[in-house]
Amino acid sequence: MSKPRIGLLGTGPWAELAHAPALAGHTGIEFSGVWGRRPEAAAALAAAHGTTAHSGEAGLDALFAESDAIAFALPPDIQAPLAARAAAAGCHLLMDKPVATTVAAAREVADAVASAGVSSVVFCTLRFAADTAGWIDEQAAKGGWFTAHAYWLGSLYGESADDSPFAESPWRREKGGLWDVGPHALSVLIPLLGDVTEVTAVRSEPDLTHLVLRHTSGAASSAALSLSAPKEGGGTGIEVRGEHGVAALPESVSDPVDSFRNAIDALLESVRTGQPHGCDARFGLRLTEILTEAEERAAARAKE
């Protein structure tokens, strides 16, 4: 049988650092092409990885026709309608988080996946990084957790921020840590404690959101999320406490290329078995629902 063909939409920093190298280096698939909103960027990225460049509406249709699956490295609200379109064309989806920043757009993607009968995976990094994915599975299997606390304090926009290509991202600057790093925290808390049933949120400027969450297991968790923390005070961690004691998420040192390669494997496995992955489009929709509720509650509290 021929190898599955996977195309890539997007030519930005994440596409250059992770998506394109992982697709080009994966021995089990054919990297079928790159589509970009800027033709020159698509041509450069495609040439660097030995594949075909596409742009414009005709290029989208051509890449969909030449691919069995599409990977996305696009801003969420550009990703969502194109993902729904790719699913309708019969392509499986490997999306970035968040799937979208509106519930309607995320639901459109999930419904398109269901209607087309295609498989989907959302690249929540911790769920695919080798040094954290196993820990999450292990703690979820144990159960009995009483509470958890997550903090994801980046300094992308802090006063002492390092130069980063991601700082040029308009959607990150607009939506802040809640939407950029919130999906990472939720992608760990939900499998450990169950779905979120209640959300409390408080935001302080320039960009720090505190969440308190109640889960279906009866446990409560909290999270502190920011992209504007002082570099000296930033960091990432998740800790759970319960009948088994205390467990802390290992510090991830995985190469993002390896993590994305694992996400490709997860999509291929879902296609092969027909079984939904735990981080699929429906889970992506749920993340958007929770983050939207948190944003609304934080805004309402700020007006009190």
Structure, explained:
This protein has 304 residues and is of the alpha/beta class. The protein has 2 domains: 5-126 and 256-280, NAD(P)-binding Rossmann-like Domain (Rossmann fold, 3-Layer(aba) Sandwich), CATH 3.40.50.720; 130-252, Dihydrodipicolinate Reductase, domain 2 (2-Layer Sandwich), CATH 3.30.360. It is 45% helix and 23% strand. The protein is built from 10 helices and 12 strands. The chain has helices at residues 13-25, 39-48, 56-65, 76-88, 103-116, 130-142, 170-180, 182-193, 256-273, 281-302, and strands spanning 5-9, 30-35, 53-54, 69-72, 92-96, 120-123, 145-153, 196-204, 208-215, 220-226, 235-242, 245-248. The strands form 2 sheets. It has a 6-stranded parallel sheet, sandwiched between helices. The chain has a 6-stranded mixed sheet with strand order 8-9-10-7-11-12. Helix 4 (76-88) runs parallel beside helix 5 and helix 5 (103-116) runs antiparallel to helix 10. 48% of the residues are buried. The model has no long low-confidence stretch (mean pLDDT 95).
The H-level CATH homologous superfamily of the largest domain, spelled out, is NAD(P)-binding Rossmann-like Domain
Q: Give the number of domains.
A: 2
Order of adjacent strands in the largest pleated sheet: 3-2-1-4-5-6
Count of DSSP E strands?
A: 12
